[in-house]
Amino acid sequence: MDRSQDSNELIELEYIFPIINGKVSMAINRKMYRNFRKEGLEITPEQWTVLSFLWREDGVSQQALCDATFKDKPSMTRLIDNLAKLDMVERRMSPNDRRSNLVYLTEKGRSIEGKANAAVNETMKYAFAGIGDEGLSLVRQLLKIVFNNIQESLQG
User: What number is the average pLDDT over the span 145-152?
Assistant: First the structure.
């Protein structure tokens, strides 16, 4: 490989790494946060990820939420505490293990699903504007490969 090719690869990494490393995610989160406010919701994108999981599967352990959202236990504890303060979720003792709590949606937490998902859909509409179905499919496929590669490397 010649020097100009090395230089081109470095330039590519300078563009690709910040994108994969969170620049796009931060921009999407900023837009999502604004869209939540437009809908009158006082939640964050991180809180939405927890609520979104609970809308599909209510009454789960904190560990299940950690696994689903890739958050560590202290971060998840903080997220659940803040959602509880907003009266969106509640902890209940597990019927199978008295040492463990399960996280459930409250009526308020269930009631915002439509507005919250509308805000997220609006955000995604902006994020993916100009990208057709074929392009979206390719992006999904490539990011899934990148994610799986990293996950596999962390397990080994």
Answer: 85
Q: Which two tokens stand for residue 34?
A: 């604004």
For residue 139, pLDDT over 90 is answered with: no
From the list 92, 98, 97, 95, the residue with the least C-alpha distance to 80 is: 92
Give the per-residue pLDDT at 119: 96
Q: Which residues pair with 93 in a beta bridge?
A: 101
Parallel/antiparallel/unpaired status of strands 101-105 and 89-93: antiparallel
The CATH label, of 3.40.50.2000, 1.10.10.10, 3.40.50.2300, 3.30.390.50, for the domain at 44-111 is 1.10.10.10
Distance separating alpha carbons of residues 136 and 156, to the nearest angstrom: 30
Distances (CA, A) of 130 to 125, 127, 143: 9, 9, 18
Q: Tell me the domain boundaries of the chain.
A: 1-41+113-156, 44-111
Quote the pLDDT of residue 156: 67
What predicted TM-score, i.e. pTM, was given to this entire model?
0.80
* Order of strands across the sheet that contains 101-105: 60-61, 101-105, 89-93
Measured between alpha carbons, how far apart are the two ends of the chain, in Å?
30
